[in-house]
Structures are given as structure tokens and as C-alpha cells.
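Suppose a colleague, Dr. K., hands you the sequence of a protein chain of 148 amino acids and asks what its three-dimensional shape might be. Before reaching for any lab equipment, you can write down a predicted structure in C-alpha cell form. Begin with the sequence itself:
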Amino acid sequence: MLIEGRVMRGHGVASGRAGDERFPAGTLGLQLPIFESLGLKVDGFYHGTINVSLAPLVPQPQQPLVTFRDVQWHPGCAAEDFSFFDIQVAGPDRVPVSAFIYWPHPETKPEHFQDPHVVEVLAPHLEDVSEGLPAWLWVAPSRMIFKR
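The predicted structure, expressed as C-alpha cells, is then:
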């Protein structure tokens, strides 16, 4: 399924741009090595997320590629559950690359909640992807569906 969305400004915590002194290299700087050690191939991925609004659609996870439970990624934070959904993503150049929807489970996430229309995408660095521009996601309906 092909879905068009808009790139939105995120909290900046995943990339470290928020200036949160707990995570100077960002939360993903701490999390990605753990996910790699658990078998998720994210070598070469950007240490930040692309936040894509799919409004008016709301994503509803179905069958993730993988779920990691009770991940203790920082000593000052409670353990969290994370799921990953394999997708293709493209920015304004419309050239798709392999990526993941990064889904921290809301019931275990302590802060920095997303708008329900927004998905966070983990991908290699994409040129020309910036706030307000379109992004395209190719998502298998068996992985995630989108409802109004």
C-alpha cells in the first residue's frame, strides 16, 4: 500500500537535537546498538527519525517484523517495548529505500508522545527530506493498516 504523508518536526530527542542532557547523542544513539545486538539490521541508518504525518489516517499496527520487549536502554529510564515494521520510504525525489517504522509502544513509553497520525521512520540519511515536504511510504497491509 502506498501512502503519502508530510514530514513534520519531531521532538528532536531521537537525534539529540533537543538538547536533553540525558541523551546528548540522542535516544537512538543509545538504542540502535541494542537493537542491532538483538538482530535488527540498522547499520548505516541515520540516528534520528523522520516524523511523517499521515493525517487524517491513523496507523494501526498489525504484524511487526520484530518486537523487542522490556528493553532497558538507559539507566535513568524505564524499560520499553519496541516494534519495527519493514517498509520502503521516499522523500521528494521519490526514490524508495528500505526503512522501518519505529514504534515505541505507547503503553511503555514514558514521555515524548507522538500525534496519533504520525509515524516515526528509521532510514538511511535521505537528501532533501525536511519539514513540510511530502514523503511516501510503502507498507504491507499485513504489517500495518491505516484508518480514518
